[in-house]
Design goal:
The complex is a heterodimer. Chain A is of the alpha+beta class. Chain A has ten helices and 16 strands. Chain A is elongated and about 105 Å long. Chain B has a single domain, classed as STAS domain (Transcription Regulator spoIIAA), CATH 3.30.750. In chain B, helix 1 runs parallel beside helix 2. The termini of chain B are far apart. In chain B, 39% of the residues are buried. The chains are: A alpha+beta, B alpha/beta. Chains A and B meet through loops of A and helix 2 of B.
């Protein structure tokens, strides 16, 4: 649309007197005007400059007005152009043609003989719609760019978050693997497994309240806090207290993390742990045998991290000997819901764990596949992290 | 969407929640609690969870923030009528003793 006029109108009519009449009124009303005497001329003019509005006679020679309308509306480059068809009289036959013209995409019709005031009122009204459409299109373009930028950022963050997870492998006498399925690219689940400078291995699995970017940022804080505190001696109880303080001081209301924090000690064949509001871990004595076993729950129900600086925690120590298996997970796994609105629950998970393959990766796949089968055709609605650790 | 009903009992406000409390509905519940406190400024807010079969981490965070906010304002937050499933979540997160939890709404209002 020109900046110096209210917009560009192309008049298409075989009669030069009508074109001049329209030209006069439109120009006086502040519009820039082009003229065409037949349908072919309209297409020629439109190839040079695209008008905002075409005011075409229904019985235009060369290409009739309704056919012209079809051509314009079929072309993706011109389909948003506003078209007003001028119909010669208001008899029944032309009325049907007018309805058909509107059906194939004409935006409005005006009946001849034309009256100057009505013409301008119709064109002004059309331009209000044209301006609104242009604004909507501009907003859509801006939204598309914004959405693409956000999507790109989330994809980058997801790649970064994935790189923070330990690669499946071994540390000391422990082998471990994981399955990590965030909902929506990034999530609030995190886990870490690190050799301790004074012997043994520190293990963390955590789930931050909420989803998305905020949860993902806090999960990184949780991991950093864990890695800072395990450098000093003390064990899971001290680590949990320190991590709780870090989180309580650095997060907002309603933001907290549940976590299972453990120290694996190969010298004493034990695991010491704090279950900070998290799903209990599953311990399977001789779990790598490939034979049916009785899985046990490791839980001591402490508070989540970051809710309140004064929350208390407790630590427990149990055996974790060569041949044993440990399974850690986040609530997205056990709160997965079947089609009949039944959640898997930790009891359901225990059933899957009672007879597991001896291979670590096969064990993780079995749990995940069985859970997917349980909820099918539903999908996971929360981030899912599953970690299996074998004491070799 | 949660079904949330509110009523006044003297200086106490009761907010009854029906439905699953998860991430999708925490904004609705947060808004209802804030509106009720702003309108009534109750000495005691009772949250009745009789119709709530599930609460996730977002819902727990919201309740903890509500309790913390009540502490700061010199008012009290009581929770009542929790289902066995919700109790399990409170137990697992060691929050059963953090909150004042009552078996019935009458008990929650009386204390």
């Amino acid at each position: 649309m020109s900046h110096t006029t209210k917009g560009l109108v192309l008049i298409a009519d075989a009669e030069s007197s009508i074109r001049d009449f329209l030209h006069f009124y439109l120009k006086r009303a502040g519009y820039q005007v082009l003229q065409a005497g037949d349908g072919h001329d309209v297409l020629i003019e439109m190839a040079k400059v695209q008008p905002d509005l075409v005011l075409a006679d229904l019985s235009l020679p060369g290409i009739r007005g309704d056919h012209l309308c079809k051509i314009i509306k079929k072309n993706p480059d011109t389909r948003d152009m506003y078209i007003i068809l001028m119909t010669p009289t208001n008899d029944m036959l032309d009325n049907e043609t007018t309805i058909e013209a509107l059906n194939i995409g004409a935006d409005d019709t005006i009946i001849k003989p034309l009256r100057g005031q009505e013409l301008i009122a119709r064109v002004d009204s059309a331009f209000r719609i044209i301006r609104m459409q242009k604004e909507i299109k501009q907003h859509n373009r801006e939204l598309t760019v914004y959405r693409e930028n956000v999507q790109r950022d989330i994809e980058l963050a997801a790649r970064l978050q994935l790189s923070l997870l330990p690669e499946a492998g071994a540390v000391g006498p422990y082998r471990y693997t994981h399955i990590y399925k965030p909902v929506g690219g990034i999530g609030g689940d995190i886990y870490a497994i690190s050799p301790l400078p004074y012997g043994g291995v520190g293990v963390l699995i955590a789930d931050v309240s909420g989803h998305g970017v905020t949860a993902s940022l806090i999960s990184t804080m949780v991991k950093t806090s864990f890695e800072n505190h395990i450098r000093t001696r003390g064990g899971p109880l001290i680590w949990a207290q320190c991590m709780n303080r870090d989180l309580a001081r650095n997060t907002l209301e309603e933001q907290y993390a549940t976590a299972f924090i453990a120290q694996l000690d190969p010298m004493t064949s034990t695991i010491s742990y704090v279950c900070a509001g998290h799903e209990p871990a599953i311990y399977i004595a001789d779990g790598q045998s490939g034979e049916p076993r009785h899985p046990a729950i490791l839980n001591n129900a402490s508070s989540p991290l970051g809710m309140d600086e004064n929350m208390s925690f407790s630590e427990r120590t149990t055996p974790f000997a060569p041949g044993d298996r440990l399974i850690l997970y986040t609530d997205g796994l056990v709160e997965a819901e079947s089609n009949s609105n039944t959640i898997l629950s930790s009891e359901g998970l225990l059933r899957f764990c009672s007879e597991m393959p001896s291979e670590l990766e096969d064990a993780a796949a079995l749990i995940f596949d069985q859970t997917q089968l349980f909820i099918d055709p539903n999908k996971f609605t929360d981030d899912v992290t599953l970690v299996v650790i074998d004491h070799l | 969407m949660l079904n949330i009903q509110t009523k006044q009992e003297g200086n106490a406000s009761v907010l009854s929640v029906k439905g699953k409390i998860n991430f999708e509905v925490t904004a609705q519940l947060r808004g209802a609690i804030k509106d009720l406190i702003a309108a009534q400024q109750p000495n005691l807010l009772v949250i009745n969870l009789e119709g709530t079969s599930f609460i996730d981490s977002s819902g727990l965070g919201l309740l903890v923030a509500a309790r913390s906010s009540a502490d700061k304002n010199g008012s009290r937050l009581h929770i009542c009528c929790i289902s066995p499933q919700v109790k399990k979540v409170f137990d697992q997160t060691n929050l059963t003793n953090y909150f004042s939890i009552f078996a019935t709404e009458q008990d929650a209002l009386r204390v």
